[in-house]
Amino acid sequence: MKVRALDENHDWTLGYKTKSKAIAQNVKTEILSLYNDWFLDFENGIRWFNYLKKNPNIPNLKRELKRQVLKVDGVKSLEKLDLIIDERKAIVSIEYIDIYDERQRVSANANN
């Protein structure tokens, strides 16, 4: 697997990421994807605006996050999903095993 490298602002940078680093970047991209935002697949993404509000449905959010992570090419299993959420932001930490049998940890901040 090989993908264009992104910097900390999610902008393209020179070079590529391969193997486990490419998978980790794809996992983070899927976590931060907005539902109905990609013209080739309107069902893709997380419904973040439904959850970054008062009294969000946490079990549904966890199901959506799990679905997004497990559909990433190269992810074998989801080992741990931690979530801290309030009305303005969510902090997601994911641990998974990739196809290279490496345990990876990815964290992302979703802000309203």
Topology:
Elements: E1 2-6, E2 12-18, H1 19-32, H2 48-51, H3 58-70, E3 75-85, E4 89-98, E5 103-111
Antiparallel strand pairs: 1-2, 3-4, 4-5
How would you characterize this protein structure?
With 112 residues, this protein is of the alpha+beta class. It has helices at residues 19-32, 48-51, 58-70, and strands at 2-6, 12-18, 75-85, 89-98, 103-111. The strands form two sheets. It has a three-stranded antiparallel β-sheet, with helices on one face. Strands 1-2 form a two-stranded antiparallel ribbon. Strand 3 (75-85) and strand 4 (89-98) form a beta hairpin. Pfam families: Sheath_initiator. InterPro entries: Sheath_initiator.
A few lines on this structure:
With 112 residues, the chain is α+β, with helices and mostly antiparallel strands. The chain is built from three helices and five strands.
Strand % is 35-45%
User: Overall pLDDT, averaged?
Assistant: 90
What low-confidence regions span 5 or more consecutive residues with pLDDT below 50?
Answer: none
Estimated structural class: alpha+beta
Rg from Cα: 14 Å
Number of helices: 3
How many runs of DSSP E, i.e. beta strands?
Answer: 5
Tell me the helix content. Answer: 25-40%
Give the N-to-C terminal Cα separation. Answer: 32 Å
Q: What sequence of helices (H) and strands (E) makes up the elements?
A: EEHHHEEE
Strand arrangement, major sheet: 3-4-5
Which word captures the global form? globular
Q: Summarize the main sheet.
A: 3 strands, antiparallel
